[in-house]
Amino acid sequence: MDLYQELILDHSKNPVNHGLREPFEGESHQVNPTCGDEVTLRVHLSGTGADAVVEDVSYDSMGCSISVASASILAEEVTGGSVEHARATYEAMRSMLTSKGEDPGDEDVIGDGVALAGVAKYPARVKCALLSWAAFTDALYKAEGATQ
Amino acid sequence: MSAAPFTDEELARLRADFPILSRTVRGGHPLVYLDSGATSHKPTVVLDAERHFYEHTNAAVHRGAHQLSEEGTDAYESARATIARFIGAQPTEVVFTRNATEALNLVAYAFTNGTHGGGGGRGDRFSLRPGDEVLVTEMEHHANLIPWQEACRRTGATLRWVPVTADGKLDLTDLDSLLTERTKVFAFTHVSNVLGTLNPVRELAEKAHAVGALAVLDACQSVPHLPVDVTELGVDLLAYSGHKMFGPLGVGVLWGRAELLDEMPVFLTGGSMIETVTMESATYAPVPQKFEAGVPVAAQAVGLAAACDYLTALGMDRVHAHEQAVTERLLRGLAERPFVHVLGPADLRDRGGAVAFAVDGVHPHDVGQVLDDRGVEVRVGHHCAWPLHRALRVPSSTRASFAAYTTPGEVDALLEALDRVPAVFGTEVPA
């Protein structure tokens, strides 16, 4: 099955930077109501405006391999980068995942995220892959409000 | 002598009646549909009956006096008689709804309306006030839980529930302290949609009646799968859906004892359900019309009647025997696989044809995906029974559920596909 690439299984078994940590300025809890999967995700920022940097993404993810791997890839791709880069990564991930397989994803923008390209062909699983990203954008919004 | 499962020949003939069963999925795999607990497929006779109604008698039934309206009304009421007969009921005791969820909401809203003296009800039986209690169970489908949560919220009544045991049966140890003279309704399921647990309906209904409570039964997972006679169950009200028993989508049934339906306040109001109307108020039609506001779901009712006739011709005792045999085959197969754990009763006598299970170290969504890759379609998630999964300490589960058309070969296909799961996710236990 091309859905479960080795990279996804690796991320789901050993999720990058998992666990909830302090400090953080924004936190979000998201649930997938069809299966009960949950993710709690925290964002720690430094700087404001164009200089804002994602210092840490910490999370507790309870779900399928796709949702855990997606959270892990998120943490790997956006931690240490600018907020602007994080948003661009989110947009590229969302675009790929909702493309029904048309958009293969750009490795230069989303890194290991391209391993999730196969998910786009399974509409029922797209929500699994987007769950942590929804938590991230929500937590980021809260964190930006808190740091202004 | 008890009824026998269908022979291979009978099964082949039966399956030919369901056009969808011959399609392929996911790149050419034959469809192995093991999700009939969610919705069943439809035989040609049901599709033809619905189409015939639209092609020949389409009309807004119980309205107008032209020929089509007369014929449409006749078709609708004949369907009601067939559907009533199927569960041992009288036609005036059968109310058509859009689905079982609406049927259960109808009852919950009847209590709310009765509390406020509305809905044209009589007596005080259908009312809920602070101090009153509604009893449900922890294994209910959300459709038999949330309507009662909301009814309690609206009226100040208290919701209580019977817990489940670790093996997925109702824990009746403290039933006498849960079911008291304060209880006005005891709402429970006949067969669990997740675990297949078969509940002791008669006993529970008798206990409800002993304290003056009404017994409301969710029969969605029993009416399609085993012989159900409302006169033997002892409950007061019973709801089920048409689409899980080879009928069309969009039609459900509420059955109730005639004198109760007569007393019961209405839920949805509008056209078709009235007796007289002035600008200030209205009086309502007799049962069952007073519960059927709006243009009725006539074509769907006609389709459901065709489904009842189809099941009657198969013989519900044989349908049940067949599903039991298939369930036993799956339970035996799962027991041979140490990486799988069945949720719910292990004994065939305590269960119906829905089997939920957990696979060690693999999330149900991932299990379902690997099965789906081979055309094996099961349900994954919490199956609209989130509290039950919490009680069993699993976030969600994988469920296979059966119908008359399920073959032993399909069970084997599920087991074979399941054997791929540990390898895909690297969760194999070293030998």
Specify the overall morphology of chain B.
globular
For the record, give the distance between the C-alpha atoms at the N and C termini of chain B, rounded to a whole number.
45 Å
Poorly predicted runs of chain B are none
Overall number of strands of chain B:
17
Q: Helicity level of chain B, as a percent range?
A: 25-40%
What amount of the residues of chain B lies in strands? Answer: 15-25%
Give the arrangement of secondary structure elements:
The complex is a heterodimer of chains A (148) and B (431).
Chain A: H1 6-13, E1 26-32, E2 37-46, E3 53-62, H2 65-78, H3 83-97, H4 107-110, H5 123-147
Antiparallel strand pairs in A: 1-2, 2-3
Helix pairs in contact in A: 1-2, 2-5, 3-5
Chain B: H1 8-16, E1 24-25, E2 29-30, E3 32-33, H2 44-57, H3 67-86, E4 94-97, H4 100-115, E5 133-137, H5 146-155, E6 158-162, H6 175-178, E7 183-189, H7 201-210, E8 214-218, H8 230-233, E9 237-241, E10 252-256, H9 258-263, E11 274-277, E12 282-284, H10 298-314, H11 316-335, E13 340-343, E14 354-359, H12 364-372, E15 376-377, E16 379-381, H13 386-391, E17 397-401, H14 408-418, H15 421-425
Parallel strand pairs in B: 3-15, 5-6, 5-7, 7-8, 8-9
Antiparallel strand pairs in B: 1-2, 4-10, 9-10, 11-12, 13-14, 14-17, 16-17
